Amino acid sequence: MKKLLTVLGAVSLAATVGSTVVSCTKEAKKPNLQALKAQIEKAEKIQQGKKTKTAFEALKQAILEAKKVKKEEDVSKAYAAIVKAMKAFNDSADMKVVDFKNFKENAEKETNKKHSTIDAAVTAIQGIAKPEGVKTVKVEKDKDGKNIIVTFVVEERYNKVEKLELTFVKAD
């Protein structure tokens, strides 16, 4: 009985080692054209959302490059590139929102019975500190000369800010 158990133990050990060696020596499966197409479809479903335009453009460029691949020998490189681009996009910084509440409040104060002319109000608004994330602030009168239009140019990582239209009320 003892010999039988020893033999059976040795056989099962040999089988385990043999299967381990076989599974460890197997070559990693390389992606094929079908897998690349599936990865392209997955990448195309990604929306820009809160990510920067630059990050989204880089992802779209990687998709275009991957779509050009027609040969099996080019698939591995293209597959790796599109996976890398998707990861880079997902890991990229989100767009920030410009907080221009204080700017708006101060600009409204300048237009409400503080100045005798609209030009004086425009000059005063131009002197207000611009909010974080804003490159430039353009302040001008509208065509009728009754309202003041404020437009903002934001830095790349910031969401676009709509123009601000203020009604000028002359000081008494």
Automatic annotation (TrEMBL):
Highest taxon in the source lineage: Bacteria
PROSITE patterns: PROKAR_LIPOPROTEIN (PS51257)
InterPro entries for this protein: Lipoprotein_mollicutes-type_CS
NCBIfam families in UniProt: LP_plasma (NF038029), XXplasma_LP (NF045726)
Protein name in the entry: Lipoprotein
